[in-house]
Specification:
Elements lengths: L1 H46 L3 H4 L38 H4 L3 H22 L15 H4 L3 E7 L10 E4 L6 H10 L4 E5 L3 E5 L15 E2 L2 E5 L5 E6 L5 H8 L1 E7 L4 H4 L2 E4 L5 H10 L4 E5 L2 E5 L10 E2 L1 H4 L13 E6 L21 E5 L5 H12 L4 E2 L4 H5 L17 E3 L4 H5 L3 E6 L2 H14 L7 H4 L3 H23 L3 E5 H6 L1 H11 L6 H9 L20 H20 L13
Parallel strand pairs: 14-16, 14-17, 15-16, 17-18
Antiparallel strand pairs: 1-7, 2-4, 3-4, 3-7, 5-6, 8-12, 8-13, 9-11, 10-11, 10-13
């Protein structure tokens, strides 16, 4: 009996070991397979696909009205393009126009978004109130600490300019930003938000209520929830900096009654631009208007829209010539103060019944369009992705879930039947592919405001980028034209040339009503926070002739597709190059 029991025990031990071994082998095999598939996806995403894989083609390219087809003779053998509009009805088009590298890229973007969000949430710990007692406000910073104040988020006292920085906000950074714009006070809230103005908030709060630690400065207080840590900005060379910040807007015909058109005025002998600009900055007005010895401060309005400039000689004409001295013309300058009539933004109070996309190819100006829409409507825009740099600059919809319907529209670069049909309607923003490719390449290698180095342009990365992304530019538009339910097509170049008419068209498409003064305010703040400073000129042509032939074919295809859907074709400046 004992011998039989021993054999049974031995068998069970062997069976247990065998099961353990098989389980471990199964898990190892699964892990190796997952790693191999992940490596394959990343390789596909880095290489991209050829244009012939992304878009099917025919052997000939007909002219479509925006360029002479003769300019595209002698095509390269590998550059094949879809030009037969009947092919748009093929059920497999979404597979042909959706490269595998794009799917892997979208998955990678989602993983990065989740990783950034978890990292961001781990940094949200508030500063203990006991630790604030050791903060020496006046000793550590140039400005004078004025105290902790209560602030109503709906009616802010410090509303001259607003900045966000979830990673690097410091007291000095906020003070310098406000001083650069000629404000007297800098207020910090929530540890990451900076507000500027020339008047102190009326309601003081207890010092311990400013309990949020600055994100970029340990131990320093940066306000709290509806609480501002306020500093008076002290800048030794403030005068010189403010003079550099004044921008000449031009000579304009003056309104009939300047005193009625502008809310503040100053009459002074020997009036200078600096004197008038400083006076208007203190009054928190973005425009300084000079007529003779008279200085007026105000905003662009329907009576004074700053659209039709006059010859500068008319503003400098002598009295007997009927010039500025007789009150017909005036000089206009932009002060460092921000126009705040359109800076208030919020989330929708109730969920939107219409789910609207703001769709574009990367580098086509989507962020700029979001800036315009938010300031025109007063509501935040959302995003299919999560970009901390955009959130830092005030795009609070980045943090909101893209399907929450609390935003006026949602940014997306996605294409494909499933991704498009999720939306009820869409604003389709299209930009010249040559400009879009350059902008996206700069962003990819140097951030939102930087420029890629010359060695990067001359490396193998640039040709591979053009091959992959040029086909994506075309397939993105074609997919939205095919699957989009209700579209408004906006061309980036036309939006720049005719901002107010095109912006009004976008706002009406979003079923919103705005005033003319608010649109003029948007125009006065048109650049936003992500405009690259100037155009960095390269001493070489980045596009080879082979690249141009490829891109031009895509342009002709997209133009024909737009006309086939009764939309306006692409602007003539797109081709030939």
């Amino acid at each position: 009996m004992a011998k039989a029991f021993f054999r049974l025990q031995k068998f069970l031990r062997r069976t247990q070991f065998l099961l353990f071994f098989l389980t471990a082998a199964y898990l190892m095999a699964g892990s190796l397979l997952l790693l191999q598939r992940t490596r394959l996806v990343i390789q596909q995403g880095s290489r991209g696909t050829s244009a012939s894989q992304a878009l099917p083609g025919l052997d000939r390219v007909p002219g479509v009205g925006i360029g002479d087809p003769g300019t595209l003779q002698n095509p390269q053998p590998g550059a094949r393009l879809l030009v037969d509009m009947d092919a748009l009805q093929e059920p497999a088009l979404d597979q042909q126009l959706s490269p595998r590298w794009l799917v892997s890229r979208n998955s990678e973007l989602r993983r990065l978004r989740r990783r950034w969000f978890h990292r961001f949430m781990s940094d949200q710990e508030p500063l203990p109130a006991a630790g604030l007692k050791a903060v020496q406000h006046a000793a550590e910073h140039r400005g004078t600490y004025m105290g902790c104040f209560s602030e109503d988020s709906q009616e802010r006292t410090l509303k001259g300019a607003v900045f966000h920085d979830l990673r690097k906000m410091t007291v000095s950074h906020c003070q310098e930003a406000c001083a650069e714009r000629a404000y007297s006070y800098a207020g910090l809230a929530y540890g990451a938000e900076c507000y500027c103005g020339n008047r102190l908030p009326a309601a003081a709060a207890r010092p311990e209520e400013c309990s949020s630690e600055c994100r970029g400065q340990r131990g320093a207080a940066c306000g709290g929830v509806n609480r501002l840590s306020v500093y008076r900005v002290e800048e030794p060379r403030a005068g010189a900096r403010r003079r550099r910040s004044v921008v000449y807007r031009g000579c304009f015909r003056a309104p009939e009654n300047l005193t009625d058109a502008f809310p503040a005025s100053l009459l002074r002998p020997n009036l200078t631009v600096e004197t008038c600009s400083e006076f208007c900055s203190k009054k928190e007005f973005p425009l300084a208007v000079i007529r003779g010895q008279e200085c007026y401060c105000g905003y662009p309005t329907g009576r004074f829209p700053l659209h039709d400039g006059a010859d500068g000689q008319l503003c400098r004409a002598a009295p007997d010539a009927g010039g500025a001295a007789e009150g017909k013309y005036c000089l206009v300058y932009q002060t460092p103060v921000q126009d705040t009539r359109c800076t208030d933004r919020k989330f929708l109070a109730t969920k939107s019944k219409v789910f609207v996309a703001l769709s574009s190819f990367p580098g086509a100006g989507n962020t700029w369009a979001r800036h315009l829409i938010e300031h025109a409507t007063g509501y935040y825009t959302g995003s299919y992705y999560f970009d901390g740099a955009l959130y830092n600059k005030g795009f609070k919809g980045e943090k909101d879930h893209w399907r929450s319907r609390r935003t006026i529209c949602v940014k997306t670069h996605e294409s494909g039947k499933t991704e498009i049909e999720m939306f009820d309607s869409a604003i389709l923003l299209i930009r010249n592919p040559y400009k879009s490719l350059v902008a996206e390449f700069n962003r990819k290698y140097a951030g939102h405001l930087g420029y890629a180095a010359d060695r990067t342009w001359k490396s193998k990365e640039w040709p591979e980028f053009v091959t992959s992304y040029a086909s994506w530019w075309a397939s993105h538009v074609l997919d939205w034209l095919k699957y989009g339910k209700r579209l408004l097509v906006i061309h980036y170049e036309e939006l720049k040339r005719s901002l107010i008419p095109k912006l009004r068209e976008m706002v009406e498409f979003l079923n919103m009503t705005v005033t003319e003064d608010r649109l003029l305010c948007v125009e006065n703040n048109r650049d936003g926070s992500f405009k690259r400073s100037g155009a960095k000129q390269k001493d070489f042509e980045p596009f080879t002739q082979e690249m141009k032939d490829l891109i031009n074919r895509y342009i002709l295809t997209v133009d024909e597709a737009l006309r086939g859907r009764n939309f306006t074709g692409l602007p003539r400046e797109y081709v030939p190059r």
